[in-house]
Amino acid sequence: MHLSQSESDAILEFYKTERIRVAASLKHIDRTIRLLSGKNVDEESGVLLTRKGDKAKKRGPKSVWGKFILDELKHQKKPLSYKDLMDQAMTKKNIHSSKYSNVRASILNSAFRLRAIQGKITTIEEDGKKEKFIVDVTWLDDKGNLPKAHMKWLKEEKDFYPKSVDMSELPSPKYEEDLR
User: Fold this and answer.
1) How far are the Cα atoms of 29, 115, 131, 171 from residue 147, in angstroms, in the given order?
2) I need a surface site. Which of 37, 70, 107, 158 has the fewest CB within 10 A?
C-alpha cells in the first residue's frame, strides 16, 4: 500500500477520532448497564465506583497511624501485639505518657481501618487467650498460616500458638489506592 503523506495523515486522523468516539460510546454503554443493574462496583478490580462510573477515591487526610502500623510491620518483620505497637509509637514519636490513651485510640482506629476496610492487615489469635497479634496479610499463605519463622518466634518468645486465619473472611480493598 503506497500512500502519500497527506493521505496517510488523513487516515490516521480519521481512526484517532473514531477511536475516541467508540471509546466514549462504550463508556456510555457500560454506565447505562451499571445503572440499570444497580451495581456500583468495578467488575475487574472490585473497587467502588461513583455515579459517573469513575473509580471512587478516599476522602480526607490519609492516616498517619495506618502508615506507622504498616511501616512497623515491615521494619520489625514479625507479628506485633497492640501493646507493643502502642509502646513503640510512644517512644518513636516521642509522645508524653499522658497522651497514651489518645495514641491507643488512634492506633486501634487505624488498625480497624487497615483490617476491615483496606484488607492490608489481619489479627491472629489463640484459643483461650485475649491477646492478639497484628500481621501483614501478605505474610499468610493460601491456607491462612504464618511462615515457620514467625510461628517459631511466637512460640519461643511469646508462648503463643495462633490459629489459622480464614482467608475467605478477609475483606477486599474498596478503593483503588488500597490495591497498591
Assistant:
1) 46, 20, 20, 21
2) 37
